[in-house]
Design goal:
The complex is a heterodimer of chains A (about 350) and B (about 625).
Chain A: H1 2-24, H2 45-73, H3 91-120, E1 127-134, E2 137-142, E3 148-150, E4 153-156, E5 161-167, E6 172-175, E7 182-185, E8 191-195, E9 201-206, E10 219-225, H4 227-243, H5 247-257, E11 284-286, E12 292-294, H6 297-305, H7 327-338
Parallel strand pairs in A: 1-5, 4-10
Antiparallel strand pairs in A: 1-2, 2-3, 5-8, 6-7, 9-10, 11-12
Chain B: H1 2-5, H2 8-33, E1 39-40, E2 43-44, H3 46-63, H4 68-74, H5 99-129, H6 138-172, H7 180-188, H8 190-199, H9 224-252, H10 265-297, H11 310-344, H12 351-365, H13 383-392, H14 394-408, H15 419-436, H16 439-442, H17 444-450, H18 454-484, H19 490-516, H20 533-563, E3 594-596, E4 611-613
Antiparallel strand pairs in B: 1-2, 3-4
The chains are: A alpha+beta (about 350), B mainly alpha (about 625).
């Protein structure tokens, strides 16, 4: 009996200590959305997580403390060669440690379902943002603001956002750790995710589903601002779109909208996935088969419409064809590339 | 030269290469004759490499000698029931029919693959230590990371097959497995599988991780992906046939009196594992085969442009690959339950409950696969039933933990603790960490954050180290004397344990910690803004300590085979039948059959016996 009392006290102490230590160490990143919530907002992800940390701490102590205690206290005495007491089981005890966990598990599953409902709670007034994913970049389209396209995700705090996401090539996954929620983006369909940003600041959307060579760098900025600042930004973008008169200016917008910069660099250092555009126009390019070609208008146009026709030496043939771009668009993009020197 | 060629393994590998060349030449020739391109990015086209791999597999298995008896029967010739193995170590390179030789072949191959897969991990772990690119490029990183995963999985499958092959016939009193020739076939078919997995590296590598999700895995630029699929497909044969054999053996060849509830607990775990392997492995073979056909013949199973559905692949894949983790861990948990009673001289607490819990885990394990897909875009409402079913697995798993603690409670803890006991305790603690970090992933709302992060990587390394690696080492320290007649060095064993355990706990907890804070899995480099560099350096040091401890273990094995302390008898004072006969185990197991006359784990019950050998 004495053993059970000591172990009982130690289990409680160890469980409390483990939970306090884990909690104090700051397990989760900053919470920046209503879905992330906090340990005290019932139904949020951080609330559910906190319950789980409590459960993990308690169960860890419940097994490890008696185990370690037994290893120390029940050591074989020197010279003792006898066997231990012949105890084969205890049916009521075994039923207990099957039924109590069963009840606990069902309770946690119920809480999990409740938490999922809270996380998915939809606001019919939510602002729609279209998310386009491709190897290896994100772009964001704002249908409510004249179709402005940005390579950074600007969001107003306090408004629920409905992300409608599609992919050009393979499966990607939308994840901003500070928002907690995650959703795969699947080619051939539109998947949805609802986020209510709460904390203004700068974050990053990080692709969470392995999508190929430069998956690691498929990260775009996320900026949460006040509603007023957001509207000001959106209007500025709309004006820029309307006033982009020069071909380079139009080209730059198209480049951002189509995610070109996920693979192509615009500085002297190339990314591992694709040739840099810096100083590309008019230069001589070595192809996979060893031949060379001048990067003129015809070559660039062909590379956009039929990227696999000529592969530049040292790079994998992974670029998708951009048949959505008109001749006028391509001329603008080429003008933009030409301006990069 | 002729002497070397006469070694079956060498002969098989020579013909494997010949078969590969013939297959490639046939396809390239036909393509040339039809006026198609005969050459490709990697010398030949993808079709040629895949067909070459197929022919090479057949060539290996046909010339190695493992099908020798079947070929003779086919021609109407008779062969003896048993073949005597050569006395030298060369028997391990040939088609032995002895389950003990095959068990050792499996175990050694598992350790070799463990070393290769572990070395891959060390390479990319070093790359990850520091921010920015060190010495790999992203494609090389992805390939090493993907092959680390798959080689370790194959290594684990071979490792558990090794334990089950060696032990189950001994534990139930059988002279061999039910189908000795099929048993040898199951092992040797895994050799070409490993060759194809490794051949994927020079052919463009693998960029998808071990899960091989299309459409990424359908990227035509990487022929390596096909060799990866082919390797896994062939390895699956080994698993299915081995499981079939094991179930037949336990069903038909038990000693007299060995009723269901007198079976050693490891045998229960082996049946549970084999039932899963026998019925679910086909699904990973099927899903990988469908991607192969999508690539080779343009069948758009998972290609949205042709009306296919990429999420369908994930359902097919996880229908095997989730139960597969129970295939990996159930034998290990069986080892823990099997070793505790003799080592602490006390019966297993709640034997029946523990035996049934393996089946509980195996059955519920079939109904939980979609918890890998909570963020995949499958039907949103389906996530709730899968959350309930997944969390239910905690109940039978909990039963095992409570039973182990109750078994150890008031046991006679050996002093000093033998290595086999240390690794058993290590398995319990590490598997507990893996078990407790599971429910947050099973709960949909928290999984939305945890999915595809380093948290998951830490969690499953905990489950696989606790469920396989630690018990595997425990089993090797415990049964090595049975196989060789000599003990492993205990001092080196303790050093192995005390290096590996803390290093591993740092590794897995560190992975989980940065995973929660935003470290994604499967990335070649990480955002410096996250401030993870110190932790990554720590994780790399921990990984090298683990590797060093395993190097000590391998050294220990090599030295102890010849120079270990002789251990001819029942060194553990066990009740189990294999320890009642001399070590190393005689060629045809028990000279006289035994009868089961009592309970397997009645330690501390004076005058009781588990088995009694019949009079001649």
């Amino acid at each position: 009996m004495r053993h059970f009392v000591i172990v009982g006290i130690l289990v409680v102490l160890a469980a409390v200590g483990a939970y306090a230590g884990l909690d104090a160490s700051g397990l989760m990143p900053v919470a920046a959305s209503a879905q992330a919530g906090s340990a005290t907002t019932a139904g949020s992800i951080d609330w559910m997580w906190n319950l789980q940390v409590i459960a993990m701490s308690f169960l860890f102590a419940l097994i490890v403390v008696p185990l370690v205690y037994a290893l120390i206290v029940f050591r074989r005495k020197q010279g003792d060669t006898s066997d231990a007491e012949h105890i084969t089981g205890n049916t009521p005890l075994e039923i207990t440690w099957t039924l109590i966990p069963l009840v606990l598990v069902l309770a946690f599953a119920y809480l999990g379902a409740y938490s999922l409902r809270e996380v998915r709670r939809a606001d019919p007034q939510a602002m729609i943002v279209k998310v386009h994913a491709q190897q290896f970049a994100w772009s964001f389209e704002y249908p409510d603001y004249g179709g402005v396209i940005s390579d950074k995700l600007y969001l107003p705090a306090g408004t629920q956002i409905l992300l409608q996401m599609d992919s050009k090539d393979v499966i990607h996954s939308f994840w901003v750790p500070e928002f907690r929620v995650k959703q795969d983006v699947v080619p051939g369909r539109v998947t949805e995710l609802r986020i209510t940003p709460t904390l203004p600041g700068e974050y990053k959307v990080r692709c969470a589903e392995l999508c190929g060579t430069s998956h690691y760098s498929m990260e775009n900025g996320v900026v949460v601002t006040s509603e007023a600042e957001f509207i000001a930004w959106a209007q500025e973008q709309q004006n820029a779109l309307a006033s982009a008169q020069t071909p380079e200016g139009k080209g730059e917008l198209l480049v951002k909208a189509n995610g070109c910069l996920g693979c192509h660099s615009i500085t002297a250092t190339a990314l591992p996935t694709a040739p840099t555009w810096f100083g590309l126009f008019g230069s001589s390019v070595t192809l996979e088969d060893g031949s060379t070609v001048t990067a003129d208008e015809a070559f660039l146009k062909e590379s956009i419409h039929d990227p696999l026709a000529k592969i530049v030496k040292g790079f994998a043939p992974i670029m998708p064809a951009y048949s959505n771009l008109t001749d006028e668009d391509i001329a603008a993009i080429i003008a933009y590339i030409e301006s990069l020197k | 030269m002729k002497k070397i060629y006469s070694i079956p393994l060498v002969r098989g590998l020579v013909w494997l290469v010949v078969g590969l060349v013939i297959g490639i030449a046939a396809v390239a020739g036909i393509r040339a004759a039809l006026g198609l391109d005969a050459t490709g990015r990697y010398l030949f086209t993808e079709h040629a490499w895949v067909f070459g791999g197929f022919v090479g597999t057949l060539a290996f298995i046909a010339t190695h000698g493992v099908m020798g008896d079947w070929f003779k029967w086919w021609r109407g010739q008779d062969t003896p029931e048993h073949h005597e193995d050569p006395a030298s170590w060369l028997k391990y390179l040939g088609p032995s029919l002895d389950h003990k030789v095959i068990g050792i072949q499996y175990t050694i191959t598992a350790i070799i693959l463990l070393v290769v897969g572990g070395t891959f991990a060390l390479i990319f772990r070093t790359e990850l230590s520091f921010e920015g690119q060190q010495f790999l490029n992203p494609d090389q990183y992805n390939t090493l990371m993907s092959l680390h995963g798959m080689l370790m999985i194959v290594s684990i499958l071979l490792g558990i097959a090794g334990l089950m092959n060696y032990l189950v016939p001994l534990l139930i009193g059988a002279a061999d497995m039910a189908f000795p020739r099929l048993n040898a076939f199951s092992f040797w078919i895994a050799v070409p599988a490993a060759v194809w997995l490794l051949l994927s590296m020079p052919l463009g590598g693998v960029e998808t991780g071990w899960t091989g999700y299309p459409p990424l895995s359908a990227n035509p630029a990487k022929i390596g992906q096909q060799m990866f699929f082919l390797g896994v497909f062939v390895a699956g044969w080994s698993s299915v046939l081995g499981a079939l054999n094991l179930i037949a053996t336990v069903a038909r060849m038990r000693a007299k009196g060995m009723t269901a509830f007198r079976l050693p607990i490891f045998v229960w775990a082996s049946i549970a594992t084999s039932l899963i392997a026998l019925t679910a492995t086909q699904l990973i073979g099927l899903s990988f085969q469908m991607v192969m056909f999508q690539r080779l013949f343009g069948m758009g199973f998972f290609d949205p442009a042709k009306g296919g559905n990429p999420v369908l692949f994930q359902h097919l894949f996880w229908f095997y690959s989730h139960p597969a983790v129970y295939v990996f861990i159930l034998p290990g948990l069986g080892v823990v339950s099997e070793l505790l009673p003799p080592l602490i001289r006390k019966p297993l607490f709640g034997y029946k409950w523990v035996a049934m819990s393996s089946f509980g885990i195996a059955l519920v394990g079939f109904l939980v696969w979609a918890h890998h897909m909570f963020t995949s875009g499958m039907n949103e409402y389906l996530r709730v039933p899968f959350m309930y079913s997944t969390l239910l697995v905690a109940v039978p798993t909990g039963v095992k933990f409570f039973s182990w603690v109750a078994t150890i409670w008031k046991g006679k803890i050996p002093t000093p603790m033998p290595s086999a006991f240390l690794f058993t305790i290590g398995a319990i603690v590490v598997f507990l960490m893996g078990g407790l970090t599971g429910p947050p992933n099973a709960t949909v709302s928290t999984d939305l954050h945890l999915h595809d992060t380093y948290w998951i990587v830490g969690h499953f390394h905990d489950t696989l180290f606790g469920g396989f690696v630690f018990p595997f080492f425990a089993a090797l320290y415990y049964w090595f004397p049975k196989a060789t007649g000599r003990r492993l060095d205990e001092r080196l064993g303790r050093l192995h344990f005390w290096l590996m355990t803390p290093a591993f706990l740092v590794l897995s907890s560190g992975m989980m910690r940065i995973g929660l804070l935003g470290m994604r899995r499967r990335i070649f480099d990480y955002d410096p803004a996250l401030g993870f560099e110190n932790m990554h350096v720590t994780l790399t040091v921990a990984a090298f300590l683990i590797a060093f401890s395993i190097a000590i273990f391998i050294y220990n094995m090599i030295v102890s085979v010849k120079e270990g302390d002789p251990a001819p008898g029942n060194i553990w004072n066990s009740r189990s039948p294999e320890w009642q006969v001399p070590s190393p185990m005689p060629a045809h197991n028990y000279e006289t059959p035994f009868e089961v006359v009592g309970e397997p784990y009645d330690y501390g019950l004076p005058g009781s016996k588990y088995v009694e050998f019949m009079k001649k």
